[in-house]
Amino acid sequence: MGRNPNRLIKEKSLYLKQHAYNPVDWYPWGEEAFEKAQREDKPLFISIGYSSCHWCHVMEKESFEDPEIAEILNTYFVPIKVDREERPDVDSFYMEACLALNGSGGWPLTVLATPDKKPFFVGTYFPKEGKWGRPGLKDILLQVAKLWKEDRKRLLSSADRLLNALKGERFSPSTASLGEDILHSAFERLMALFDGKFGGFGDTPKFPTPHKLMFLNRYFYRYGKNRALLMVEKTLTQMALGGIRDHLRGGFHRYSTDRYWLLPHFEKMLYDQAMLIFAYTEGYKLLKKDLYRKVTEEIIRYLEREMFSPEGGFYASQDADSEGEEGKFYTWSLEELKKVLTPEEFEIVVKVYNLRQEGNYREEATGRLTGRNILHMTKIPSQLSEELNLTEETLKKLLERIREKLFKEQEKRVKPSVDKKILVDWNGLTVAALSYAGRSFENHRWIELAKKTADFILEKLLSPSGKLWHRYAEGEVKYEALLDDYAFFIWGLLELYEATLQGKYLKKALELTQTTLNHFWDEEGGGFYLTPDYLKDIPLRKKEFYDGATPSGNSAMAYNLIRLGRLLGLKELERFGEKTLTAMASYIYRTPIGYTFALIALDLLVNGSKELYIVGTKEDYTPLLKEINREFLPDLDFLKVDETTKAVSDHINNLSRLNGKTTYYLCRNYTCEKPTDNPEDILKILRGY
Asked: What letters, b where the CB count within 10 A reaches 16 and e where it falls short, cover 658-673?
C-alpha cells in the first residue's frame, strides 16, 4: 500500500484492520490511548463503525486516508478506532450521547471526548469539507483544537452537562405497572403504522424487525384477530419478493431504503438472518405457505455455505461493497444476463424479476439510474405462472435452472468481504433460530448446526469461572461478555434443549442465568445493566430496553426468566422476569411498539403458559413431539424428566410413570392436568386451548 501500517494491523477485527494503512495514528480502545491522552493533555477523537458499514468506508476514503486530516488528528488529538460489534457497550454509551445531543444517530459515529472519555461533541458522518449545510470534519477538528487550547472550560462544562443528562432517569425505579391493555395498545399502534400496500411499518427506511411480526403472531394466537395475521402475511410476502432478499444466494440485506423493499443497503448481518428464520418459520406454521419454508431454507443454506466457520460458530457479517462499490456483486446489467442465459431464459428472467435496460438500481445519493438491476419480484409464483402460460412446476424448474446459472456466474465476481469474528450474542440468536426451525421442519441437519455452534461457544468462549467472553477471532478470545451475550445465548440453549432434550443445555442455561443475575442485575431500579459489575472502562453504566434490529438484552432476559422459572418451578426466576418488565414499564407505556419482544414476555405473564413434562422413553414420546413441533404453540415449553433435569429442578422429582408406560404431565400456571399415558389426550388439550 506504499505506507507503513499503524498499530491497528495487530488487531483481529476486520474493521480495525481496514484502517491499518491510514495515515491516521489510530489506537484501539484501551489504556494505551487513554494514558497518552492524559500524558500529552489531548482530547480523544473516537470513530466507531463496523466492517460492512457503507458510510464508514466513505468517511475513511474522504477523511482518514487524507494526509491533511491525518496531520490534524495526529497533532491535536489521540485518535481511537472502535469496532462497534466488538465493543457494543462503548458504542451504546456514545450513541446515547449522540441521540441526546442531536435527536438521531447512526454510523460512522464520530465522538470528541475528554481524556477521561467524557463526550462533549458527537455526530455521525461528516465530509472532509463542509457542504450541503453539513459542517466539514476539518473545520470541526480545527475549531475544537482551538477551544481546547483557549477555552477548555467550555468543553469540559459541556461534557459534564451531557454526562449528567445521560445519568438522568436511567437510575430511577419505574412506578408504572404493565397489564393486558398494553398488548392491545401495541397492536393498535402497529395497525396504524402498517403499510397496507407493501407491508412493514412506517415509511422509509424499512427494517425487517422480525420481533414485531413475532408479537403479532402471538396476538393472533391469543385473541384470534385476523388483522394481526394479515399484517404478518403481507410483510413476510413482500419482503420475500423484494430486493431486500437475495434471490440467488439466500439471506436478507440489512434494510430497505424505500417502502417497496426494493433498494436495500446490501450488507448482510448474522442477527437479521437469525431473527428472520424465526419470523418465516412461525409464518409457515400459521399460514402453511411454501414460500416461507423456501425462504427459511435459503437463509440457512446461505449461512451454512458462506458464514459458518470450520471451527464452529457463525461469522458476523458480509460487506455491502465489493471493488469499492456498493451492491456491485448483487446487481446485473441486461448485457451480462444475455451472455449467460438462453433467449428463452433471458425473457423469463426479465419478466419474473422486473429488469430494465436502464436498470432499476438507483444511486442512493443522486437517485440516478445506474443501468444495473436488483433481482426482485412483484408477484408470487402462482400469479407469474398464469401470466407466462406455464404450469407452476414448470416455472419453478425453469427459475431454478436460471438461478443456478446466475449463481455460477456471480461466483466469478469479487465477493464482498466477510467479517470472520464470531460473536456470542449473534451466535446465541442463531442457535435459537436453527433449533426452533430444525424441530419445526424436522430438519436434523439444522439442529446439528445449532449444537456445533453452542458447543463451540461452551468450549472456546466460556471461562473456567463460568463467565462468557464476547468475541472469538483467529484463535483469540477477547472482551468481557455483555448482557446481550448472556441473554441471547441462554435463549439459544433453551431452544436447543427443546430441539434435543439433552439436559446439559438446560443445565448450562440455568447456570448462565445465575451468572447474569449475579453480575448484571440492578438491585435498586430493577432490570439488567448492559455491562457487568467487573467492567469499568466506560464513564457510565447504563441499561438498554429498546427492541431495535434485535431484542434488547432486558427483553430477552425477561423472556428467558419467565420460561425457565415456570418450566423448572423456580418462582424466584419468574419474579426476576416480572421485575425486569416492571423496570421497563414507563418506557413501554410511552412507545409500546418499541418494545415488542418485551411484550412477548409480558404475554406469558398476562395470558399464561403451558409446560409439558415427559417421563419415559424416546421411542414413545417422539411421535407426540413431532406433532407438537408442527403446531404454533408459543406458550408451550416441554421437559424430559431425567437425572440431569432432576438435578436442576426439585419441581419434577416426584413425577413418575403410570403403569410403567411413558407418562405426560401437562401444566398451566402451576396447575397440572391429570397425568396420562395417551399422547392423543395431550394433543386434544393443546389444540383446544
From this structure: beeebbbbbbbeeeee
Grouping H, G, I as helix, E, B as strand and the rest as coil, residue 290 is helix
CA 1 – CA 431 distance, rounded (Å)? 40
Start-end of H helices in 60-194: 67-76, 88-102, 137-150, 152-167, 180-193
DSSP of 404-445: HHHHHHHTTSPPPPEE--EEHHHHHHHHHHHHHHHHHTT-HH
Q: Is residue 48 part of a domain?
A: yes
- Kindly list the distances between the CA atom of residue 418 and the CA atoms of 58, 376, 413, 437, 580, in Å, as whole numbers in the listed order: 18, 24, 15, 25, 36
Residues pairing with 153 in the sheet: none
Domain that holds residue 681: 610-688
Q: Which helix (H) or strand (E) holds 105?
A: none
Interatomic CA distance for residues 538 and 485, integer angstroms? 18
| The three cell numbers locating residue 223 | 385473541
In a domain, 205, yes or no: no
Q: Which residue among 171, 191, 215 closes a domain?
A: 171
CA-based radius of gyration for the chain? 26
Helix (H, G, I), strand (E, B) or coil at 572: helix
CA distances from 257 to 265, 361, 549 (A): 7, 11, 15
- pLDDT tens readout for residues 254-291: 999 999 999 999 999 999 999 999 999 999 999 999 99
Q: Examine the pLDDT at 365 and tell me if it is beyond 90.
A: no
Contact 321, 57 (CB under 8 A): yes
Q: Is the pLDDT of residue 331 over 90?
A: yes
* Residue 135 φ/ψ, nearest 5 degrees: -65, 150
Whose grid coordinates read 458504542?
91
Q: Among residues 412, 446, 463, which one ends one of the domains?
A: 412
Average pLDDT over residues 539-564: 96
Per the listing, cell 483544537 goes with: 145
- Per-residue pLDDT tens over the stretch 238-253: 999 999 999 999 999 9
Residues in CB range of 646: below 8 A, 6 or more apart: 652, 653
Q: Are the C-beta atoms of 49 and 83 separated by less than 8 Å?
A: yes
232 in any annotated domain: no
Q: How far is CA 535 from CA 32, 169, 555, in A?
A: 17, 22, 22
Q: Is residue 638 part of a domain?
A: yes
Q: What is the pTM of this model?
A: 0.94
